[in-house]
Amino acid sequence: MTGNPVRRYYRNAYDYEAVKRLLLDPCRSPEAGACALCSIDPLTQHDHSSELTPLGTDAVLIVDGVFAFRPEINEYWDFRVWLQVDAELSVQRGAERDQDWAGTDAESIHRDRYLVAEHIYLQEVDPLPMMDVVIDNSEFTRPRVVTP
Q: How does 18-51 read in b/e, with b if 16+ C-beta sit within 10 Å?
């Protein structure tokens, strides 16, 4: 595959068709009895799509993830929450969290790949106007609502 690796990451990080087929569509269907919470694990490359989780009649699906409001899946959300945090703080938190698997590359992965991809996402999708609520998560132990 050719082209900018960050753009490739942004465009191909998620298999949105699998997300819809395995998780989102079943969770929307009253007839569905189960859904898959994972397709291909990005770290191990193991396929978990046949491991099903039962869906109760009163089940609620909460999804957390980057690029969650891209057009491919944006229609699925009933309520949208944006966790707002300064870019540098995001890089710092991510590098600390991913130190175990990324080692000394953790900061550059977050700064040069994830943060750049996030800027592409913000520019192309402009998700903030879609949000039902925005939460400032600068102080991890004291998040605060910044929009009604």
A: ebbebbbebbeeeeeeebbeebeeeeeeeeeeee
